[in-house]
Fold this sequence. Notes:
By secondary structure, this protein is of the alpha+beta class. It contains eight helices and 19 strands.
Amino acid sequence: METANSELRYAPQKAQSSDVNSGQGVEGAPLLPHAELPLHAVYFPMGFPLEVFSNSAAVMAVAEQSWKHFQPRFTDRSLDLRIQVTDDEDSPTPPSVPSCTLQWNILLHVANARNFLVCDLRNGRSFGSITQSTAESPLYLRYYFLEGAALSMMTALRAAPIHAACVCPRGSGMLLCGDSGAGKTSLSYAGARSGWIYVSDDASYLPLGRKDRLVIGNHHQIRFRSCAVEIFRELEGRPVTPRVAGKPSIEVPTSELDGLVTADSAVIEYVIFLNRQAGEDGLTMLSKDYALGWFKQWCYTAPDEAREIQYAALEHLLAVPIYELRYRDLGWAVRRLEQLAATGR
């Protein structure tokens, strides 16, 4: 396994019993003791229960920042996330970006021997050990460890991930789909400014085991690319977040955007693939097979048996009309989707 730091190596020889008893593992690496994690809280990311345990107030503060706005919605068994913080006298800064490895139902995030995360995607349990400097780096901790673990478990067991914005023009739930740069966030926000209900920007989730086509999302924030200031002047002066994963973005709480109506979910009636590269504006039908193949690519972390359940849920979702929207002007696109919601064509 490739790692981001040479501290973690495979050692074929067995650890001696004296090493184990003295708290030393192979090649002198310290064995972690049984983690005492006295701090505990329950959160509900996307409405699903998640129990967080740690020995660090800094970890719990970041968990609070990520999930304090979400309310309980689903009654599934709680997912379990445990983060131990250890001393790091020789590591004043957080490590490099973790490398990720998926084998069977185990997902590993490994930055180095003292900063790692292990997710059991079949049983909904995760354990990580990080250094104090990592615990005191909120962005790094949030994206790579806390939210990384919670979303990995959630999208393996509770909901199929969908790379799409979710909005409701005239009360009709729509998924706005497309690869990065297709304009999902810009169009969803432009529509929200025109009175659409806003559910999510570019990450939506399809809860499993339901007969309806309910989709959920993080309606508490919108993440814009920095160039969005050229379109939406109200974003001027807002800080650009130096994302540790992906491109820098302007992250705005929806509560700070005047006039927006938000909801935590929508029942989907249309699926729209966005195309800003076409020469002529228009709305044309797409096949279910095309859409299903595109949606399936985001289910890669689920164990085999869970993936089949996700595929079935996606097939059920895609019984609705599926379109490609070709557009160059945001205002025209907003009006065209409002027409579709109002007339069905």
